[in-house]
Amino acid sequence: MNKTSSKILAGFKYIYLVAFFALLAGFFHPLITNTSFDSVIIGVLILFVGLAGGVLLYKAATSEKKREIFLGGGFALMAISLYYIIALTGRI
User: Fold this and answer.
1) C-beta of residue 46 within 8 angstroms of C-beta of residue 85
2) Distance between CA 51 and CA 44 in Å, rounded?
3) Are 50 and 83 in contact (CB under 8 A)?
4) Residue of 66, 31, 24 whose CA lies nearest to 48
5) Mean of the pLDDT values across residues 6-24?
6) What is the per-residue pLDDT across 35-82, written as a single tens digit (0 to 9) for each?
7) Per residue in 65-77, pLDDT tens?
8) For residue 90, what pLDDT is reported?
9) 47 within 8 A of 23, measured Cβ to Cβ
10) Most buried of 23, 33, 53, 88, CB within 10 angstroms?
11) How far apart (Å, rounded) are the C-alpha atoms in residues 11 and 40?
């Protein structure tokens, strides 16, 4: 596989993630209720923080040398994402 097709596939991968997270964050709700898209954008960003935490936890499982750093960073990012989700719903 050449570099151009590899870059195109990587681009589609990230476009797919953004579209999936936008739908998961409630993309159609502002269209139906005629409100702002701010909560959708914040929801997508929160999901990306959680995804980064999950990637760091995966790297902790596969890494030999920096396992503690990846583990701590992954759980910290997931905790931050959970805090933002709870704060966004108004429970704090």
Assistant:
1) yes
2) 10
3) no
4) 24
5) 81
6) 888 888 888 899 889 989 998 999 999 988 889 999 999 999 999 999
7) 889 999 999 999 9
8) 86
9) no
10) 53
11) 22
Tokens coding 53: 């935490």
d(CA 87, CA 92): 5
> What does the DSSP 8-state code read for residue 2?
-
39: nearest Cα among 85, 81, 92, 91: 85
What's the confidence (pLDDT) of residue 1? 57
Q: Which of 50, 51, 38, 40 has the alpha carbon at shortest distance from 81?
A: 50
- Name all contacts of 9-17 with Cβ < 8 Å and 24+ positions apart: 17/51
